[in-house]
Design a protein that fits this description.
The structure is a single chain. This protein is α/β, with parallel strands linked by helices and 63 residues long. It has one helix spanning 33-46, and strands at 5-9, 21-25, 51-52. The chain has one domain (5-55). The chain has one helix and three strands.
């Protein structure tokens, strides 16, 4: 069985990530670009990609 748990972030913080824990940026359409870059760099240090909630059919801009 494969497990995936999305860990939600709305600003840069300690990134918890591994094969089960996946970081996702919530409210991504309203987050400052410098915060997005910082969080993406923190994820790269852990060897994972930062998922975002503002792609495809989404509600990110409603927050």
């Amino acid at each position: 069985m494969k497990c995936r748990i999305l860990v939600c972030y709305h600003k840069p913080s300690i990134v918890f990530a591994n094969e089960c824990l996946l970081p996702i940026l919530v409210g991504a359409s309203s987050v400052k670009e410098e915060s997005v870059s910082e969080l993406e760099n923190l994820c790269k240090q852990k060897g994972v990609s930062l998922w975002r909630d503002d792609s495809g059919d989404n509600i990110s801009s409603l927050l």
